[in-house]
Design a protein that fits this description.
Helices cover 49% and strands 11% of the residues. With 95 residues, it is mainly alpha-helical. It has 2 domains: 1-41; 49-93, no CATH class. The chain is rod-shaped and about 85 Å long. Bound molecules: zinc ion (ZN). The site of zinc ion (ZN) has 8 residues, from loops. Zinc ion (ZN) is lined by residues 52, 54-55, 57, 81-83, 86.
Length: 95
Amino acid sequence: MKTLLLFVVAFFAYLLVRFIMKRVNEIRQDALSGNAQEHRTTPEEAERMVTCAECGLRLPESEAIPLDPSETIGTAHNIAFCSQEHKQQYLKKHS
Ligand SMILES: [Zn+2]
């Protein structure tokens, strides 16, 4: 009976180790592919943040919609928006 118990415990320990190894591999692969994507899509800490001129939302510069040079109003520059919609709204108000 003791041998059987030992066998069962060893079996579960084996399953646990296998499970952990699998998870570690998954997490490692997630991190690798995540890092590759992060470069394009998600903001990095160092990235410059801009504020939507319409609603005040803070967002990374790469995701913001800039004001085209031809649309720049007066002295306003460095203006960005969180969406095309807010850009249109802002332009309507300020033209
Ligand atoms: Zn906005």
